[in-house]
Design brief:
- This protein is an alpha+beta fold.
- Strands 8, 9, 10 and 11 form a 4-stranded antiparallel sheet that branches. Strands 5-4-7 form a 3-stranded antiparallel sheet, covered by helices on one side. A two-stranded antiparallel ribbon has the order 1-2.
């Protein structure tokens, strides 16, 4: 049976030896290199100290001395969310509420963060303490300020702005290398033992708002009705005056025409009939008419001297 393995310089290497050498090489590479991902920042420390060039932000593969000479701390570059435990707080109007707050933060300066806090766990502990101090501003407001349905009267946004400003100022003062991106309330609810009183208070508040809205609506409706009534009276008065003026003018005109017609009523009627014929026959239209009806009776030739129309021009006599 032949010997298995690889010969190198006359020395036969067994598979176990080759495998061990490969594992040792991989372990050596692992000890002297480290990789930084795109969402990470690395701080390379030497004997647990970090110098100005210790921060590695570009993704890639880097060399280092084996532990314990050098060690790498990896920090997440993304925004992280920290939520505080629920706490009971008394408001300005002596109402008790249970609140839960949150803060969005990220590591802005990895070197300062390492020198002051070193770990994310320590950073979250500091943030919780300062978030608890910052949320005390909620006690300056009444329950209605935080739960009002009207966006103009609701001051929840103002409260969250104050919490963010106070927390950001505290973290900048401590110079932890942390940037606070956002902060606010994630939960606001009454304590279990006061829930019935809380809902009774909310019901009365809603009833008062509804009554106020109904009163405002009724007042607006009354004002609109009064304005409409005034406009109606004004329009009717104007229409009546205008109608009286038209009526008076028509009477004056008719009186003038009647005075003229009284001088020769027959001639006036004859002129009116001619005017009616002119208006009727001015269009190229065919009519089927009853010649017994005025003014179309003018088309009928009168019979005899007695029926002669006194306003018809006499026919010329022959020689």
């Amino acid at each position: 049976m032949g010997d298995s393995g690889l010969k190198l310089g006359g020395v036969r290497l067994s598979p176990a030896l080759i495998l061990g050498a490969a594992l040792a090489l991989v372990l050596l590479i692992y000890m002297v290199t480290f990789q930084v991902r795109f969402d990470q920042t690395a701080v390379l420390t030497t004997f647990d100290e970090a110098g100005p060039n210790a921060v590695k932000e570009e993704p890639g593969l880097y060399l280092k001395w084996p532990y314990p000479v050098q060690e790498v701390r990896f920090y997440d570059r993304r925004v992280q969310v920290l939520e505080s435990p629920l706490e009971q707080l008394r408001l300005r109007d002596d109402q008790l509420v249970v609140i839960g707050t949150y803060v969005d933060w990220r590591i802005q300066d990895p070197l300062k963060f390492f020198r002051s806090l070193k770990s994310v766990t320590d950073a979250e502990g500091q943030l919780k303490n300062r978030l608890r101090d910052a949320q005390s501003v909620i006690g300056q407001y009444a329950l209605d300020d935080l739960t009002h349905s009207d966006p103009k009267a609701n001051r929840l946004g103002e409260v969250e702005g104050k919490i963010l400003a106070k927390l950001s100022a505290d973290m900048q003062t401590q110079d932890y290398g942390i940037a606070v991106e956002a902060a606010g309330l994630k939960r606001l609810m009454p304590p279990e033992q006061v829930t019935p009183k809380y809902y009774e208070h909310m019901r009365k508040t809603c009833e008062q708002r509804a009554q106020g809205a109904r009163s405002e609506g009724q007042a607006a409706a009354d004002s609109i009705r009064a304005a409409a009534a005034r406009d109606k009276d004004t329009i009717l008065a104007f229409a009546e005056r205008h109608a009286e003026n038209l009526k008076a003018e028509a009477q004056r005109n008719s009186a003038r025409y009647f005075k003229e017609f009284e001088q020769n009523e027959g001639f006036a009627i004859y002129l009116k009939q001619l005017e009616a014929l002119r208006k009727t026959l001015q269009h190229n239209t065919t009519f089927l008419l009853d010649t017994q009806t005025a003014p179309f009776d003018l088309f009928v030739e009168p019979k005899g001297e007695a029926g002669k129309n006194p306003f018809t021009a006499p026919k010329p006599r022959g020689p």
